Amino acid sequence: MANDRRIKSAVDLISNFPDVILQHILCFIPIELAITTSRLSRRWRHVWCEIPSLSFNADTLTAASVNETLTRYTAPNTKSFHLTITPYPENIPYIDRLIKFAVSHNVENLSLDFSSHYYVKLPDFFCNSSSVKQLNIDIGFSHMIVPEYCTVSWTSLQKLSLSCGRLSDESMANILSGCPVLENLTLHNCVELKVLDLSKSLRLRILDVKCTMTDWGSTQIVAPHIHRLRLLSSQSSSPTLVNVDSLTEAKLEILFSVKRYFTFKADFFQTVVLKMLEKLQNAEKLTFGGNCWNEKLYKNGESV
C-alpha cells in the first residue's frame, strides 16, 4: 500500500510539470509513442498536441496515425521535423502530405532521411520555404535532389546537408541562388556534380565534402569565401581545388582500398596531394587524415 502511494505521488509530480517541460520531454520519442501519452489521464490528453519537434518513422506509419497526428496537432509553428522513409512503396502517399505539413507549420530544422528508399521524389513545393534554417536531405541515387527546373527559395537557410543523391551543376546553381544567407554546406557523395561554384555565396564559411564515389574525380571546387574545409575523398575521386583563398582551417582525408594500399606511386602525390597542398598553403591550420599519409610506410610517395 505504501509503495502504491509513492508511485501515485511520483506520477502526480510529473503531471504537475508545466506543459512546456512535458512537451520538451516528448520531443525525444517518436510522435506515435508521444500520442499514446494522451491516454494516461485527462491532464495528458492534449499535451503532445503542441510539442515543438516531430519525428516520424515510416515503419510505424498508418493512414489512421497520420490523420490523427495532422488533425490533432495544434502548434502554429514546428521547430524541428524529422521524417524517415524505409523501402516500402506503400509509404509513398504519406510523404508529400507530411512535408507540406512541416512547411506549413514554419519548420526551422527539417530532416528527411530517404536513403534506403528507391522510389522517393521530393515534391516541387518543397523548394519554397521561408522558415527553414537547417535542412538535411539524405536521398537515394535514383532521383535528382532538386530538379533542374525548380526555382529554389530557402531565404532563411543557414545550414544545408545533402547526401547520396543526384546533383547536377544546374541543380546546385538553383539551390545556391535560392539560399542567400547560407553559411554551412555539407555534400556527401552527391553524384553528377562537375563544378561546385560557391563564388556567389558570400556568407558561406564552412564546407564539408565527402566524395568517395568515382563521379567526383573531375569535379572542380570554387569556394573563395570559405574559412573551413573538410575534404574526404578516395584516390579516384579527389576533386580539384580551384579557389579556396580565404581558408584558415582545412582537413584533408584521402582513403585507399586495402588491396592497393602498398602500391601507390609518386605520381599520385604529385598530381593530387601536392596540388591540393598548393591551394591550401594559406590555411593557418592544416590536418591530414585517412590512410594515405603515413611517414612510416611512405618515402617520396613510394611504399617502403
From TrEMBL:
Residues 96-255 form the F-box/LRR-repeat protein 15/At3g58940/PEG3-like LRR domain. Residues 14-50 form the F-box domain. InterPro entries: F-box-like_dom_sf, F-box_AtFBL13-like, F-box_dom, F-box_plant, LRR_dom_sf, LRR_FXL15/At3g58940/PEG3-like. This is Uncharacterized protein. The lineage of its organism: Eukaryota, Viridiplantae, Streptophyta, Embryophyta, Tracheophyta.
